[in-house]
Amino acid sequence: MTSRIKEDIEAIGKIGKDPRGGNSRPALSPEDIEARLYLIERMREAGLEVYVDDAANIIGVRKGRLKEPYVSTGSHVDTVMNGGIFDGVLGVVGGLETMRQLNEDRVETKFPMVLVVFTDEEGNSFMPFVGSKYFAGEISNELSDLKGKYELISFKDALERFLRRVEGKVKKIGRFPYALRNHVELHVEQGPILYQRKVQIGVVTGVVGVQRAWVEFTGRQAHAGSTPMDMRSDPMISAAKTIEKVREIAIQMDMVGTVGFVEVSPNVINVIPGKVRIGVDLRSLSKEDMKKAISSVVSYALESSSPEGVKVDVTEFFEEPVLCSPRVVEEVKRSSEEAGFSYMELPSRAVHDSQVMAKVTDVGMIFVPSRDGVSHAPEEWTEWEDCDRGQETLKRTLLSLQS
Ligand code: GLV
Ligand code: MN
Ligand code: MN
């Protein structure tokens, strides 16, 4: 067993422990910065040249005989609130361990390799995929408009706070200037398939897209006792009906749909709320279905709000579903087989930085089992042997993608 993987995951898992359970390390929070400092030290110890770009991505370079293109791996270390210790972290630590083993085996590669720790994959701080979207060139100036959701801080100030802590340890760059050959991400499955079927490695064929909408219902704040029922403009009623509709539409359209965020103002028992904001999250492998579903949700929100005299405002976020590269898929299969691990193909039903990276390079993902399929929860667990098998598959895949 690779005790270094366990040691690193446990060490990072101690950072940002939430008294309510699990880990809460929103991107660039003081806790996330502590986890980043830990990793930067380990990356430097592994002889990587460490860069930080304008999106706060941490980029560790292992030189090859050629200057570029790079064989790339990486994931994220920010967590959802009350999340687990493996989501994202395994991919980063697995990449780091791979670099260490290559050093120990004195492997000199033709193409250089890079380990990227992407910023705000979860989007709990600023926006989902801030780091990968910037790395892939999809956003630039947008960074200066980003504002913290849990902490009232601008992205620029959060970046500076991080940079102050790493001065002298990293090189600051604008954007990573080199081409990639491919990007491979190791991750826990976060669903039940591998665990239930007792399969060791998941060869990911594609990643679902995500369609989100922040729907804000504005009514009239008033007294819960003295306002007659027929003289109310209550946004909670329209929000509640819409939440129920999300589930109905998701089931009808064979996708998943969740409302995991509700904000009520002023959130007081004897006050009819003035505003209710909900976060709708729809996932599918079909972009068309997601577009249809969100438009049905929004139409329903408008319809059910108008008799209440409630106003509706919608802000959308969308990320495309992608297919993994057939070449990478083949190499992951071959690597699992050569290592003697059982494997199966499956799509990812969680979203990942790799789907953003697919816009600039060939991507693939390697999954390992999640106990009972649980993730985004304090109970998230993956056996250490499975972490090791994932890392071994990652190493073999990255090496095979050298040729
Ligand atoms: C990220 O983990 C997501 O699937 O939301
Ligand atoms: Mn996650
Ligand atoms: Mn993740």
Automatic annotation (TrEMBL):
GO terms for molecular function: hydrolase activity, acting on carbon-nitrogen (but not peptide) bonds, in linear amidines. It holds the Pfam family M20_dimer. Residues 206-301 form the Peptidase M20 dimerisation domain. Keywords: Hydrolase. InterPro entries: Amidase_Cbmase, Bact_exopeptidase_dim_dom, Peptidase_M20, Peptidase_M20_dimer. It comes from the Archaea. Gene3D superfamilies: 3.30.70.360, Zn peptidases (3.40.630.10). The keyword Hydrolase applies. This is N-acetyl-lysine deacetylase. It comes from Sulfuracidifex tepidarius.
